[in-house]
Amino acid sequence: MGERRSMKRKLLKMARPFISVLNKNIITNYFRDSRVVETLPENRVLYLAPHVDDETIGAGGTLLKYAEQGSETHVIYLTDGSGSHTKGDVELLIKKRKEEAAKAQEFLHLKSIQFYDEKDRGLRSTSELQMRLKTTIEKIRPEVIYIPVFVDCHPDHVMTGKLLKDTLELLDNNVTGNLKVRLYEINTLIPKEEINFIVDITSQMERKKQAVNIFQSQTIDFDGFIDLSILKSVMVKDPSVRAVETFLDLTPDNFVKRYEEIEGKYNYSDHFKQVNKSETLLYAIYKNLKMKEDIYKRSKS
């Protein structure tokens, strides 16, 4: 099995120059548009990251941009990250991931980080976690909360949405009245028609790459995520924009309604593929794309 996987990697590496050209032509054609980028007016920002590195992969450039303008950024890591490897010392891995989170905090200029230490791939929206998150939100009073998209291959990413949904229902309107919920992409992309918030990270792109490289404990490839930030810049009319991060921006009420509309109705890992790897990026984008578009439409019904 190991030899077969090694051979597959070698073949993909040999095909990389051809695949790179193919990716550029097809993916840019798919995303090409004439949109404008958004400003980031929020002064207090909270990110919910199911795992250490999710916030950097999905929105690291945006985090850097917030820091540059003096906004307070806070990250809560919901799980212990123990499920990222199938072999080795689990406690050592958890320790390593927390060390990487501390380095990321310094690099991204995060005001605070918290660890909820739930079991990787075992995240649940318990009353205890809801109250813990509620307390944090009431203390920080974020103007926007970033979470992974609710249609995602990883169960912890989907469950993060449920945790926030359940917590929002516990909060007073004076906390949520002007709040925004902004969904970021990690494993599974938002259909282009659903993207309604684009951030120009051209000036932050090189530092985002450096931030991603902090996470040496991870064995998966990150090049697909990086490529997408560059390739998706064609969504923007301004040619000086060369890298972007894209989001689905919702009101709390709209987020709750859309999550509930499709909650528990799909096992996304059976239908979609992670976009982490450049060589399989096209397949990951187009695999069951029509189904994904229909799920998002259904969430609005």
UniProtKB/TrEMBL annotation:
GO terms for molecular function: hydrolase activity, acting on carbon-nitrogen (but not peptide) bonds, in linear amides. It comes from the Bacteria. Its cofactor is Zn(2+). It holds the Pfam family PIG-L. PANTHER family: N-ACETYLGLUCOSAMINYL-PHOSPHATIDYLINOSITOL DE-N-ACETYLASE (PTHR12993:SF11), N-ACETYLGLUCOSAMINYL-PHOSPHATIDYLINOSITOL DE-N-ACETYLASE-RELATED (PTHR12993). This is PIG-L family deacetylase. It comes from Sutcliffiella horikoshii.
